[in-house]
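BUG: 3D viewer hangs when loading the predicted structure for this chain

Environment: internal workstation, default settings.
Expected: structure renders.
Actual: progress bar stalls at 90%.

Input used:
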Amino acid sequence: MSTTFKNQMSELMKQAWMLVKVYGFSMAEAMKQSWKAMKLKAALKKGIVKFFYQKLNGEIRTAWGTLKEGLIPETKDTGRKKNESLITYYDNEKASYRSFKVANLIG
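Structure tokens produced before the viewer hung:
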């Protein structure tokens, strides 16, 4: 197996276990949610993507976002630790960075 595939599977399992421990998902639900998140991150790196997630107040948000180089403004490194339970993206409608919990991703 290639090392990139092993790294992706390792990341997938780490995220799934985090969803089980922190949010009380069953392992099957956690794996499905982790796959959705992994596919979304890959799509965000390729271009602008439409996706949905539930905001903290319960409202469903339709987002158009990207992580593709050239479509996002330059950022300086803040030295912040990456939060594994969040997906951060550049919102094309609001022209700013946004984030949401992996557990709240709908599709």
